[in-house]
Every structure is written in C-alpha cells, then in structure tokens.
DNA sequence: TAATGTTTGCAATCGAGTTGCGCTAATACC
DNA sequence: GGTATTAGCGCAACTCGATTGCAAACATTA
C-alpha cells in the first residue's frame, strides 16, 4: 500500500495540505466519492479547493472519475499501474438504494467492437441495482 | 415502423399534443437527444412540459435515458419489444468531438457476473471517443 | 352541465459544477 | 538574504441543466 506522499511523487503532483487530506480520504474509502462526500468529510477545506484538487488528480491519473447517473460525478483512486487507458477500465456498480458506487476492479471490460472507423478513447460503464447490504 | 399514436397506445400513455410532437421528434432522430436538443427543435413547446413528457415516457418505457457524461441526460426511443430490462440494454457511444450519442443497438451487453448477493436492474454503458465523421 | 382529474406554460428555485479575484505560501532568480 | 514570480487556497458569485409550485387550459366522468 502506497502512502499519499508516494503516490503524489510517482504521479508528479506537488504535495500540499489539501491534496494530502483529499487523497487520504479517497484512499480510506472503499466506495467512490462525490465532491459533496469529500466536502462533508473535510469540514475545513473549501469546496473549490477540493474541486480543483480533484481536477489536478484526474489530469495526472491519480484518480479516475465515474458518472454513475446519480447526478454527481464520483471519484476513486486509480489502481497501481493504472493509466486510465481502455485496458485499465472496469465496471462500476451503483446501488440505487444507498447511492453508493462500487468499483468492480476484478471485472474487466471485454473488447468492444465499434462500428467502422469509430475510435475508442474512454469508457464509463455503470451497472445499477441493489448492493449486497440493500438486497434483503 | 410504428406511428407515434400506436406506440403511445401500446405503452398505455395517453396521447396529447406535446407527447406526439416530442415522440415524433425522437423517432426522427438517429442520435439520442437531450432536453435542450428537443427544446430547440420544438420552439413553441415549454421546457417543463417536455421535461415532464420525457419523465412520463421513461416511466412507461417509451424511451430510455442515457447518461453519457456530457452533463446532459439524453433520450432515445426504445426498440420494439424493449422492456428496458438488462437483456434489452446496449452500449452507447459518445463522440467527444461532436457531442453526439449513438445507440449501439447491435452490440449487446455481455453477461456481467456481479459480486455475491448484488442484484442487477439497469445499466448505463457509454464508450467515448471519436465517431466516424470526427475521426479524420 | 358540473365536478374532478390531467396536462400545460410560466416563473421561480435547486444544486452540482465552475470561475474570478485577492491573499498567502512556495519556488525561482538575483 | 531579498525580491520577483508562480502556484495554491478560500471566499463569493455565477452558470446551467434539472426540477417544482401554481394557476390556467383541457379532458374525462358523473
């Protein structure tokens, strides 16, 4: 397990107080977090600072973002060695009851045969339903 | 090809002027449409009326919605016989250049093995890149 | 026809995301 | 060390898609 400092160093992102606490929070969660989730967890850090931190992290592939259809973009730390290329992508599961988003990292996305001359760059795969806790 | 009236009858949605023009517009497009797209196309129909019409259509499975990550939900008419169940789902392609969303209806979603006790209800699969027109 | 329910248009509101700006901290340069 | 330059931060304001309250118009039923 890498520390926040190690991750930032590897991804060539300068370390700051805000970046450390945001990344620490993301590492501590097992579910992808929205801007609001992070804002609530870090009471003394401004929303726009968190927002810009997330942008920086995403540009430098520290984290990846997920559009789960909840209306809020969620963020999760990339796995070690991830370059956010199609081959690094995985499915996400969004629980429609508890609104949590799970990274299904063990479920790689199969090869997708696109129509002629289409070029694949990215993918956002979200399956929705009930998670184990809500499926009672 | 079914007419608007036939579709609404089958899906048990009462026909009205707004519903007819919205559905006609959606049927005439080959790309999924956003609320704004529809609003622009139907100059004399109020946005909130279109919005509520889309909600009604979605509830009654006349259309399905797609979150393509553009920030605007897009809508497309369901194929005949579609019940918006997992087996009816398909991938969508979002062109990051022209912002158009394509339904890849010929590309069914493979069976997804979820973790223990997770229940699949829906899926929102969007691959992103360049469409044939923009991939030059 | 009267009563009731549904649909529509307008205006206002909500909320996630984003930006401008001034201050402060860090870094580079002399 | 001292000063100039750059980067990061916090606050407040703003954007824009989505949503709602309300009253008028329309449709349905008794």
Arithmetic mean pLDDT of chain A: 90
Number of helices of chain A: 4
Q: Which strand order spans the largest sheet of chain A, edge to edge or round the barrel?
A: 1-3-2
Structural class estimated from helices and strands of chain A: alpha+beta
Calculate Rg of chain A over CA atoms: 16 Å
Q: What oligomeric state is this?
A: homodimer
Largest interface: A-B, 31 and 31 residues
Q: What count of structural domains of chain A?
A: 1
Binned strand content of chain A: 25-35%
Major beta sheet summary of chain A: 3 strands, antiparallel
Which bin fits the share of residues in helices of chain A? 25-40%
**N-to-C SSE string of chain A, H for helix and E for strand:** HHEHHEEEEE
Unreliable stretches of chain A (pLDDT < 50, length at least 5) are none
Give the terminus-to-terminus CA distance of chain A.
34 Å
CATH architecture of chain A: Orthogonal Bundle
Basic shape of chain A: globular
CATH H-tier superfamily of chain A: Winged helix-like DNA-binding domain superfamily/Winged helix DNA-binding domain
CATH class of chain A: Mainly Alpha
CATH topology of chain A: Arc Repressor Mutant, subunit A
């Amino acid at each position: 397990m890498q520390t926040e400092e190690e991750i930032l160093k590897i991804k060539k992102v300068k370390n700051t107080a805000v970046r450390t606490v945001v990344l620490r929070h993301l590492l501590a969660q097992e579910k992808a977090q929205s801007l609001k989730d992070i804002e609530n967890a870090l009471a003394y850090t401004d929303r726009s600072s968190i927002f810009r931190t997330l942008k920086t992290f995403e540009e430098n592939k520290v984290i990846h973002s997920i559009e789960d259809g909840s209306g809020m973009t969620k963020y999760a730390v990339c796995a070690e060695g991830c370059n956010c290329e199609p081959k690094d992508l995985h499915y996400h599961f969004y629980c429609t009851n508890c609104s949590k988003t799970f990274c299904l990292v063990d479920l790689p996305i199969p090869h997708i045969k696109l129509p002629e001359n289409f070029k694949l760059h990215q993918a956002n795969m979200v399956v929705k339903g009930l998670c184990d806790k809500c499926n009672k």
